[in-house]
C-alpha cells in the first residue's frame, strides 16, 4: 500500500469529482480503482467495504470512508481547508451545500429522459443565473476579499470553482454578469496545485458523454 488515498468509483465525474478536486488542490496524490461492471460494485459490497452498500468510497488513513459529505469534510479538515472556527465552518458548509445542489442539477442533465430534457435544461439555466450565481457573487461583494470565508482558501472556494467550470461548459454566457466569480475562478485556477489538475492528462474527469452514461447505467443498473 502506497499510503495514498484510494478512490473507488466509476471512471467519470459524478459524486467523486469534488473529492478529486479537493485532494488535488491540497496537493495530495491519490490512486483510483475504477468500477467497470456491476460485479465490481457487488464485490465491494460483499467484502464489507461499503458501509451503506454504495459508492463513492475513499480509503484514507486506515479508514474506508463512505458518504460524500463525510469524505469531503475529512479531506478539508485534514488539509486545513475548513475554516478556523465553528462560525467559519458553518459558512463553508452552507456555501458548499449550495454548490452541491447546483452541481447535482447540472450533472444529472445528461441522464434525463429525452422528453424531459428541454424543461430540465431551462430550469437549470434559470436557477444557475437567478439563484446560485447571484448568491455567491453577493457574498464576495459583501466583503471584497479574495475568498468566500475568512479571506483564506477553503473547500467552499474549490467546490465553487469546480461548479463554475461546469457552468461554463453548460452555457458560458451565464458567467458574464458575475465579475467577482470570474475573478475567483481565475485566482483559484492559478494556484499551482489547481493549475496542475486543470492540465490535460490529469485525474480530472471530462464532461459526461454517451459512453460514460452507458458505463454508469451498466454499473449502477438504472
Mind explaining what this structure looks like?
The structure is a single chain. By secondary structure, the protein is α+β, with helices and mostly antiparallel strands. It has two domains: 6-79 and 197-220, Glutaredoxin (3-Layer(aba) Sandwich); 86-189, Up-down Bundle (Glutathione S-transferase Yfyf (Class Pi), Chain A, domain 2). 57% of the residues lie in helices and 8% in strands. The chain has helices spanning 17-25, 38-46, 68-78, 86-107, 114-143, 155-171, 179-189, 192-197, 210-220; strands at 6-10, 31-35, 57-60, 63-66. The protein has a four-stranded mixed beta sheet. Strand 3 and strand 4 (63-66) form a beta hairpin. The protein starts with 5 loop residues before the first strand and ends with a helix.
Amino acid at each position: 500500500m502506497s499510503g495514498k488515498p484510494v478512490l473507488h468509483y466509476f471512471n467519470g465525474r459524478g459524486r467523486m469529482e469534488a473529492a478529486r478536486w479537493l485532494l488535488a488542490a491540497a496537493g495530495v496524490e491519490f490512486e483510483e480503482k475504477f468500477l467497470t461492471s456491476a460485479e465490481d460494485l457487488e464485490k465491494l459490497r460483499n467484502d464489507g467495504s461499503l458501509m451503506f452498500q454504495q459508492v463513492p468510497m475513499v480509503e484514507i488513513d486506515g479508514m474506508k470512508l463512505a458518504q460524500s459529505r463525510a469524505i469531503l469534510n475529512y479531506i478539508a479538515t485534514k488539509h486545513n481547508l475548513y475554516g478556523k472556527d465553528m462560525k467559519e465552518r458553518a459558512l463553508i458548509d452552507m456555501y458548499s451545500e449550495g454548490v452541491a445542489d447546483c452541481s447535482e442539477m447540472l450533472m444529472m442533465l445528461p441522464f434525463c429522459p429525452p422528453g424531459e430534457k428541454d424543461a430540465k435544461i431551462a430550469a437549470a439555466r434559470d436557477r444557475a443565473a437567478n439563484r446560485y450565481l447571484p448568491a455567491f457573487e453577493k457574498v464576495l461583494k459583501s466583503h471584497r476579499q479574495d475568498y468566500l470565508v475568512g479571506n483564506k482558501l477553503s473547500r467552499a472556494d474549490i467546490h465553487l470553482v469546480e461548479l463554475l467550470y461546469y457552468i461554463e461548459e453548460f452555457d458560458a454566457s451565464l458567467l458574464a454578469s458575475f465579475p467577482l466569480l470570474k475573478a475567483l475562478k481565475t485566482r483559484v485556477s492559478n494556484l499551482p496545485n489547481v493549475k496542475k489538475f486543470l492540465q490535460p492528462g490529469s485525474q480530472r474527469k471530462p464532461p459526461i458523454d454517451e459512453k460514460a452514461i452507458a458505463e454508469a447505467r451498466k454499473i449502477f443498473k438504472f
